[in-house]
Amino acid sequence: MVKELEIEFRNLLTKEEYDTLIENFRVKEEDFFEQTNYYLDTADFGLKERHSALRIRELESQYQLTLKTPESRGLMETTQILGADQATAIIAGANIPVGPVRDTLKEIGINHEDLQVFGSLKTIRAEKDYKKGLLVFDKNFYGTISDFDLEYEVADYDKGKEIFDKLLKEYQITNQPAENKVARFYHHVYGDKE
């Protein structure tokens, strides 16, 4: 996986809404897994300014370096797999390795040598296939808070939006479109100090 268009819909949930969905979709304890995102940007938030984001995602068995850049509908994800030693080095301040992420950073005018880690967000996640898409149930921990959200990842924007809106209505979930995790992280941890 190098480049992939990401189309997803996201809604914040109360704990009660989250619990109801977990129960109704029969999500079991063994369906959950943990991941941690480490967010990188320049000191002057050059990626954020370009509506882009860069993260290292630590999963149980691997690390993924992913750059998200805006498209007309959705985000283009450029991903490369890292070894544990590479990921640890980048988090400690080393440069992004040669590859598609570094190439795309250059294309959008970001010097990879200017990047630094701004913090991390931990997610407890479960996923279920749903109507030709993927429902993602997340509990997130960042800064001093935690929150819940539901994501629906799809290939077709219009069909996906229709299905997601119906699901929210069916389960009487307050329509509360959520910013992506990196945006929520920045708002909570850095507030207006950008």
TrEMBL record:
Q: Which CDD domains match?
A: CYTH-like_Pase_1
User: Which parts of the sequence belong to the CYTH domain?
Assistant: 4-192
What is the protein name for this chain? CYTH domain-containing protein
What's one Pfam family the UniProt record gives for this protein?
A: CYTH
The protein's organism comes out as Listeria cossartiae subsp. cayugensis
Ranked from the top, the taxonomy reads: Bacteria, Bacillati, Bacillota, Bacilli, Bacillales
